[in-house]
Every structure is written in C-alpha cells, then in structure tokens.
Write a structure and sequence with these properties.
- There is one protein chain.
- This protein is of the alpha+beta class and 315 residues long.
- The radius of gyration is 33 Å and the shape is globular.
- Helix 4 crosses helix 7 and helix 5 (145-153) packs antiparallel against helix 6.
- The strands form five sheets. The protein has a five-stranded antiparallel sheet, with helices on both faces.
- The chain folds into two domains: 2-46; 61-313, 3-Layer(aba) Sandwich (Beta-lactamase).
- The two termini are 51 Å apart.
- It is built from ten helices and 13 strands.
- A hairpin with a 3-residue loop joins strand 10 (257-265) and strand 11 (269-278).
- Helix content is 37%, strand content 23%.
C-alpha cells in the first residue's frame, strides 16, 4: 500500500494528468488478484485429494490364529508357520536363527535350473561319485531335464542335482553363484549356498527364509506339480534304463498337504518344508534341526487346523 501511495505522489509531482490514476489503480488491483489466485492454487494443490471410499480400499485377507489355542511343544530348534498368500507369520520358534539347510537346498537348485533349461533339454551325466542319497546315474548317461527335476525333489538325489549344475554354462561354480544371486533377488538375506545338493554344511538359512523360498516354489506350476507327486518312474532318453522314484515326505496327501521338501544331514538334523491347503488358503510350515520332523509338522498342522480366521484390511 505504501508503494502505491508513493506512486500516486510521484505522478502528481511530475504533473501527469489525473486520468492516469484509475489506470494505475487497475493495474495494481489486477496484480493483487493474480497473486491471490496463485496462492489459493498452491494451497489447494497441497491438500490431500479425497477418493471415494470403495476406491481407496483394497481387500487383503490377513490371517489371525485363535489366541486361545495353546502353542505346540516341538523338538525342532527352529520352526515357522506362514500364510503363503499374505506372508503373515502365525507361529515362530527361533524363526530367524541360521541353521544348515540340507537337501532343502534343492528347491533353489530347481528354480535356477528352470530359468535356463527347457523341459525336454537333455542333461548329460558327467559327475564323479557323490555321497548321500543317489539314484545311481552313470557318467555319459543322458536324461531329460524334466525327469531330473523329479529325481532331485522326490528321493532327493544328489547325483541328479550335481548333473544338472555341471550342465549349466560355467559348470557347478557358475551355478552356485547364480543360486546366491537368486537368494538376493528373492530377499533371502540370511541364506547362503555353497553346493547344489545340500551336502555341504555351509548351505545355511533360516526357517523364515525357507518359508519364503517355498512360497515362490509353490507358485511355479511345474515345481508345484513335481513336489506333490508321491511316486514317479523316469528313464534315460532311450527309455531302456529306468528309475523308480518315491517322495520322502510321508505326510504328502494327508490333511491337505501338497509338498514341499525334506532334508537331512548330521549337522542340519531333520528338516521338512510343508505346503498345506485349507479352505482355499495356503500355508507353509517349516521345521529345522528337528528330532522328528514329521511329528513336529503334524503338531503344527493341528495347531492351525480350523483355528485361523481372516480380516480384510484396507491399504
């Protein structure tokens, strides 16, 4: 306002005609209105835009365990129950402690191999003698990759896992490196792989990471089909040499259990990852370093059976 009065006095001093005053006044008013509109626009832009309530809500089934149910006593040093759909943890016992993972390693082996090999690609066995569980593959034998998956994941054949990794570009070393890169990609921050079979005790992870890995496996249609298979006969590409395979998970097919993988070494103890479906909902159960993996898993299945409810939360 002082600036405006100064302008008027200056006009009069200079002898300008009085009719210039309305013009100057109009310019001043226009500037004031323009400035006010700009301020109002900034204020409006800073406000949170409201969205109709139905558009703001995205339903998410959040699983909750009945708090009245007593937690089971299990021998496993580490265990977890995870809702595979929402990733909600319903039960945990030392879920973030690191243990050796034994043959559950082969779940990552299968995922890495599937990213490179086609189902009908031929794996040429070029492995030396390997300890632990084997199906008896011989050097020079040629087997379809799809059959190697069953050999790795049903009887947990170490010779099949090594044959697959040796056929990967760069061989076993490059394969294991890719396994660890995949672990980072899947945000399995406490997981490390040192071989594709799980014989090496340096293969390590947590029950939490194993549950997340199993969730990824069960979303893969090929692997989900393999791990739910109880028995399978495979052969070399000629069909002459055959192998009868049996899934080591003796809980398979009971109480909605449809996978996933067993593991055992002296260091790791008994390990079992289980996938279970109930009323359209999927659960992953992991027990590590157990004295009786099947009994522990049965107790954890009983713990959630009919005792999980769901809340719809808005995001």
């Amino acid at each position: 306002m002082k600036d405006f009065q100064f302008l008027i006095k200056r006009i009069k001093k200079q002898g300008k005609k009085i009719y210039l005053i309305p013009i100057v006044l109009g310019i001043f008013l226009f500037a004031v209105i323009f400035a006010q509109n700009r301020i109002d626009g900034q204020i409006e832009a800073s406000k949170i835009k409201t969205v109709p309530f139905p558009l703001l809500i995205k339903e998410l089934p959040y699983s909750v365990i009945d708090s009245k149910i007593e937690e089971p006593l299990i021998s496993a040093k580490s265990a977890i129950i995870m809702d595979a759909d929402s990733q909600v943890v319903l039960f945990t016992k030392n879920g973030n402690l690191i243990f050796s993972m034994a043959s559950t390693t082969k779940l990552m082996t299968a995922l890495v191999a599937l990213n490179y090999f086609g189902q009908d690609d031929i794996i040429t066995v070029n492995a030396n003698r390997i300890s632990g569980v084997v199906i008896g593959l011989k050097n020079g034998e040629r087997v379809y990759f799809k059959d190697m998956l069953y050999a790795m994941l049903l009887p947990s054949a170490n010779d099949a896992a090594l044959a697959v990794s040796n056929n990967y570009p760069g061989g076993n070393t490059a394969f294991v490196l890719t396994m660890n890169n995949k672990a980072k990609e899947y945000h399995l921050s406490n997981t490390h792989f040192s071989d594709p079979s799980g014989l090496d005790e340096e293969n390590s992870t947590t029950a939490f990471d194993l549950a997340r890995l199993a969730t990824i496996v069960m979303k893969n249609k090929i692997l989900a089909q393999v791990v739910r298979t109880e028995t399978k006969e495979i052969s070399d590409i000629t069909g002459i040499k055959t192998y009868k395979l049996k899934n080591l998970n003796k809980l398979l097919g009971q109480d909605g259990i449809n996978g996933v993988k067993t593991g055992f070494t002296t260091e790791a103890g008994e390990v079992l990852i289980t996938s279970r479906q109930e009323n359209g909902h999927n659960f992953i159960i992991v027990v590590m370093n157990s004295e009786d993996r099947f009994l522990d898993t049965e107790k954890l299945v009983d713990y959630i059976k009919g005792n999980v409810s769901y809340l719809n939360l808005g995001l």
